[in-house]
Amino acid sequence: MSRDEQTHALSDVLDDLEQSLHGETIALAEVVDSLGRSSFAGLMLAFSLVSTSPASAIPGITAVVAALVFILVVQMIAGRETVWLPDIITRRRLSTDTLGKGVDWLRKPVGFVERLLQPRLTFLFHRPWRWLPLVLIMALTLFMPFMEIVPTSGSIASAVIALFAASLLTRDGVLALLSLGLLSILPVAIYLWS
Questions:
Q1: Cystine design at 171: which of 44, 52, 69, 119 (Cβ 3.0–4.6 Å)?
Q2: What is the residue-wise DSSP string for the chain?
């Protein structure tokens, strides 16, 4: 993968997500199919970005994103080649208008962030190094449904997950370390915020 392709990896996820939007609602299964069933990082990024955007105002979206990310992380740790999600989750339908607004809202910050990313410290994306952030993200997802009680805390948690997913897509170890640092201080920050 060339450097140019890597720096557009985040925009590509948004493009794929936007192209999947048709009709008034869309099933999560359609989103998964459009992003690719072998793109764990792309799916993790898309789901967590939705939860950081204005779409997070949809009741229960933080819990759904937490469940999706938990399932993806477990499969990544287990070394699965393709994504499996239970029907009870993939049948859930979301408003295409709300998701579209969320994608539009994310374009500018994603474009800015992409200019800063490049492959660095890529050894962090090989076993056993990548297991630590994956296990921490898995633990975070267990608390995310409860974060809906504290306004914006679920969005903050989703943003940290999005940073890690972006680091996986771009192979940027510096971003992975930043997301790990934020992940370690997130519980304290949410406690102090509430």
A1: 119
A2: --HHHHHTHHHHHHHHHHHT--SSEEEHHHHHHHH-TT-HHHHHHHHHHHHHSGGGGSTTHHHHHHHHHHHHHHHHHHT-SS----HHHHT-EEEHHHHHHHHHHHHHHHHHHHHH---BSGGGGSTTTTHHHHHHHHHHHHHHHHHTTSTTHHHHHHHHHHHHHHHHHHTBHHHHHHHHHHHHHHHHHHHHH-
Query: Domain residue spans in the chain?
Result: 3-193
Question: Can you give the pTM of this predicted structure?
Answer: 0.77
Q: Under a CB-based contact definition with an 8 Å cutoff, are residues 90 and 71 in contact?
A: no
CA atoms within 13 A on the CB side of 78: 12
- The whole-angstrom separation of Cα 61 and Cα 137 is 17
Q: How far apart are CA 155 and CA 187, in angstroms?
A: 13
Instruction: Note the pLDDT tens digit of each residue in 124-180.
Output: 787 777 788 888 888 888 888 877 776 667 788 888 898 888 888 888 888 888 888
